[in-house]
Structures are given as structure tokens and as C-alpha cells.
Specification:
The protein is 35% helix and 19% strand. It is elongated, with a radius of gyration of 33 Å. By secondary structure, the protein is an alpha+beta fold. The protein has helices spanning 3-11, 14-26, 32-43, 54-66, 115-128, 165-171, 175-181, 202-222, 241-245, 282-286, 308-313, 321-336, 342-345, 350-360, 370-386, 473-485, 505-509, 534-539, 629-640, 643-655, 666-692, 704-722; strands spanning 108-111, 141-146, 153-159, 185-193, 228-234, 249-253, 271-277, 390-401, 412-416, 422-435, 440-449, 493-498, 516-521, 545-551, 572-585, 597-606, 617-622.
Amino acid sequence: MNTQNLIKRKLARPESITAIRQILETEDGLSRSAIAERVCEHLELLNARGKPQRAGCLKALRELERAGHFLLPTARRCPKHGSPKRLGGPVDAPVDVPQRAGEVTELVLRKVETDAQVRIWNELMEREHPRGAGPLVGVQVRYLIGSAHGWLGGLGFGASALQLKDRDRWIGWDGEGRQKHLHRIVGLSRFLIRPMVACHNLASRVLGMALRQLPDDVETRYGYRPWLVETFVESARYRGTCYRAANWIEVGQTLGRGRQDRDNRYAESRKAIFLYPLAADFRARLGVAPEPVGETLDITEGLEEHCWAEQEFGDAPLGDRRLGKRLVESAAIQARTPGRAFSGAAQGDWPRVKGYYRMIDQPEDSAVRPEAILAPHRRRTIARMRAQQTVLCIQDGTDLNYASLAQCEGLGVIGTNQTGANSRGLHLHSTLAVTTEGVPLGVLDAQCWAPQPKSQKPSLPAYAVPIEQKKGFCWIKSLRDSNALAKELPNTHQVCVMDREADFFELFDERRHRRVDLLVRAKHDRCTSGERKLFDSLRTSPVRRHLTIRIPRQSSRPKLSKQKARPKREARTATVALSYRQIDLLPPAYLKDKAPITLWAIHIRELSPPPNEKPLEWFLLTTCDITDDEQACQCIRWYTLRWRIEDWHRVLKSGCRIEGLAHQTAERLKRAIAINLVIAWRIMVMTLLGRACPDLPAEVLFSDLEVSVLRAYAAKKTAAALAPG
């Protein structure tokens, strides 16, 4: 039951009506508002701040008057809303405003207090803001954006929305908590940067200034400090870029209802809800549980040779503690000599060899599943991600060839060889978490299955097959996994980096968490809302900058059936031209009921490639906001790190030799592959940490014996280099 109903019920009691009649008889000449205030004092109708609930009381009094319980004084005429004080003419336009916020002279927020300031603010809003000057309701604090160049805009804060499903769910309070503490949320009702002002980063800077000043101004005027600020952004027209840049949090959407939409007619457009906490412990102050934050790990923590296997495989839910202990021992043994059969890696320790194969050969319906084996490593990976501000979740797939295992059950068809015979194997689609410096944090997801051969006579055309039944659905599954992880990573931005195989409309149309973005290399020259197609539109866009990127080496690949041969490519440094723009991708014909999707598109092209080399050209599509050249360059750098998963696949196949595994069923192969996924990750960490953390002690990654051998070898090489002659 809401507050208004509570007030009405309290006033409708017989004893309350008697008290109201006495007030009306004894307090002759008072206005309706004054009578409502006297009734609030008498019946103790106070809000959470201890102030009389005059408006709600007056509304209930009018209803009781219509019911014939008493007669209120005649209502006095009040000036109508919608006629604010104005200047009578437009506000002078600012002059010589620089293009960047840092160059604006004497940028300041002026709290609106004087009559002259009120008139300027109203004039700006009435003329230049689409919603006009108001009126605002509840708490009211207004600012003018001043500078030596003139007035640049204004802000207006008012009361928050009474009820918002997504906001209230994000906060975590119940109806009683909302009723008690709603006044602690202030709404940004008006925000204007004047149309003639084109100044980069001005909006986000002004927002930061306002949020630092607002709590003190509210406390000075109303006697309490707000803990949250909310605002709404019309999603169909705006992306809320300035709010994102100022670290506001998008928590959901409105239902499209206004305050007066009592009939659920959805009279207004749906808007995105943005919140900004003014107090880090606002949940504790509101009396609700804080957003859960789990364990945080440093990249180098727990990687020591004597304990890493326990850290990455311990407590695996295998249904038996003995199996968990055996998994830890087996992983540690296999990691010492990766690529060898376990019998060779164990060096004749037959009890351990038997234990390993008994674990791998568990029945297919047992708890020893690949996802259970990887569960502890996944938890550690999430803990390492939690320590990062931005993490690249790189997705890619690779085929695992087991054509030599003629008796292995459950394998699929991964292609055909040059003779036309089917090649049997498994397909592995993984997500590798990587820092923005390129250090792998761990394996987040690994989907391994046996591909089925394509039917010669498909029952349905490709466009009619649901996306859930297509091979490409694995990309969406991994994206959904990142969305689910975002709840465990409240302070981490995930960027899902994918190659051209992920360029399909359903992926971009998938709903994403506010802390999850996409970065995909475009494969298809799609139609846009403009006159040109995607590729042509980018190629004709102005060049914003020239930059240098490192192109990694590429191994050769022979021709396989329909797959083209790939020549060998040496690593090189390329100078490229950069351009970018915002585009609206139109849905394909078979998804014509879908709305266009707004993305940022980035284009780079190599200017002077080596002789006989095809110039490098990338078309990237991203949901990341790109407002300047640096953000575009950042996306380019992130995409170059996609090669980390290619390197990881190479370690899996060449270093760990997982295509050399020999087991009788595909399920047993998957269990052995799961162990080697983590071993390959550790090998990469050992390779890359020396570059990222040069001060890391050698003992973290090597045993005492290995360190002694390496030091002796280094001393020998140094002595040889210094020897005369």
C-alpha cells in the first residue's frame, strides 16, 4: 500500500474526522494548505525527514470533502504552472568557445539563486531544451554553466521517480525501504549544453562538477545529503555517451509511463535509466546488502610450481574427493613434460598412471565432466578478472583432428582431406580472458563437441534454421556467459573480441549487460541506413590519424577441400590509415522485423605494404563508444591482442600435443583436453609474464632446481661472451 492510501485511511477514521472538524471550526480564515499542515501536525503525518506530508494530506482532505464529511475553505487562485519568469528575449550566444573542455576559460557552475539567474535559466530551457523549463517537482537545485565565453548551458535537479522496477532491483531495497529513503535519490531532470556549443568532453566534465557540488547544496537547502542521482536517456535518440564517460551506471529501462499514466497507456517512450552513487557505501546507508564482490587475485598470485595445480584444479566437483586429489596430482605431473603421454610424464610411477586413466575412463554419466574439471580454474580466472578495470574476452574456435583414432567412438566430421575422405575429430570453441597488456588470465569457457556432417538435402534453407541450431550459436552462448559474469564483476568492463566468423546480425542484436561490449571484425559488406554500404562508407570516410601496428607471423596452411590454402606470413610492422564513424546496420532480409542496430565502425588500411604482400585492411564493428581518435586506437590495440588465442591454440596443439591424445571415446578425450587447456594457459603465462612483470622472481614459475640450472647456464653464456678473442 502506497503512502497516499495510508494517509487517506488515517484521515478517514471517525476520530480523525472529528479532529478535522474541530480544526475547521477553531481556525477560521486559514487557507487549505495551512489547514492541511495543522492536520499533519495533529495526526503526526510526517515523512522520513520529519516534515509534514502536506500535499498528500490536502489531496485526502479534498476527497473527504467530496464525500460530504466536512466543508473546506474556498480554494484560493494560484498562478498557473508553465509560465516561468523569463528574460523576454534569447540569451546571448557564447563566443569563441574552444573545441576541447580543457581549454574553456573560467568554466564554472553558478547555483541559480537570484531573480536574474532564474530568468536566464528559464529562458535557456524554454528556448533550447526539448522539455522546456518545467516545472520541477520536489527537491529543486538549478545550475547555470558559466564561462568567460558566455553561458554554455544549465542543469536542473528535482525529485526522483516514485517507482522504477529496474532501479529498485539494482538498489536491492523493498517497498518499505523505498518509502523511507526515496528522498535520498535526486533526479537530474534537465541537462542542456547549448546547440551552438561544440566542445569535446564538455558534457562529461560539467556532470562531474555538478555531482561534486550537488550534495553540499542539497544539504544546505533541505537539511540532508543525497546518496544517489538518477536520470533518463531516450534510447531511440541518444546513447548516453556523456553519462558513460562520467562513470554513470546504466541499470535498465523505464516502462514508458509518465507520472500521470494511471491507465497504463504507455504515453511516453522507453528510456534508459542511469544512476550515479554519491556515496560509495550507499547500500549500507539504505540498509540493504552490498553488491557481492568476491575474491580478487593478482595475475602472479598462486602460480608457484609447488602449488599452482592445487590452486587451479583443487576442489573440483568430481563427486569424490579422491578423484579431486588425483586430478591435482595428474595435472602437476602432466605440466612438467607437456606433450608426452601421461605414462611417459609420470616416469614409471605406475600407481599414478593407473589413477590418471581410471579418472579419465570414468563412466560418461559420472561427475567427471570437462566443465567440472575446469570449474576451479574458472573461479580463479574470475578472481583475476576482478582485479582488472578492463578485460578482453577473446573468442575463437579450432578443429582438433583425431583421424588416426579409427576405433574412437563419438567423434564428428571436421572436414575432408585432399582425397575426399572425412576427417574425424572435435571442434573446440573457447573464451580466453586477457588483460589489455596481453597477459592471459585464464580460460572462461570451453565448448567442445563432435560436428555432424551436413545433410546432402537440407530440409530447410539456411535462413529458416533457428540461430540456436546453427554452429554460430556458440558465439552467442559465450556472450551470454559474459553477461552473466557481469553480475560478479561490478567494476570490470568486459570487451568480447571476435574474428570475422562472428559477424552475424543475431550476435549484435543479442541483449548485453551495460559492462559488456562487442568488438568484431566485419566479414559482410552490409547495408546501412545511408546511401552506401558498410565497406564503401568507411573507405570514403576522412582519415583521422596514421598509426603503426605490429602484425604477427602466420603459419602456412595447405588446401583442404573447400578451405583455401594460406601462405606463410612473416611478422612485420605496418603503417595504417585510421577512419571511423557511427553507422546503422540494417537487418538482413530474413530478419526484416528487427530494428536497425547502431554501432561504431572502424577502418584501417595499410599504406605501403611489402612487395607481393596483400595490404592489411580491417573493418571493425564495436558497441564501445568512440568519441575521439584515442578511443578508436584503443579498439585497434585490443583487436590486435586477438592473436593471443591463436597463440594459445598453437601451444595446445604443438606444445601440449592434444591431437596426439589416444582414448577410446570422445568423452574421455574431452576430459584430457580440459586438463591441457589450463596447462597451455600456464605455459603462456610463463612466456609472457617476464615481459609484463620484469621484476617477478624466477621462483614463482620455476622450481629450485630449474632456477639453479638457468643461472648456471646464464653465467656460462656471460663468461663466454666476455672471454678474450
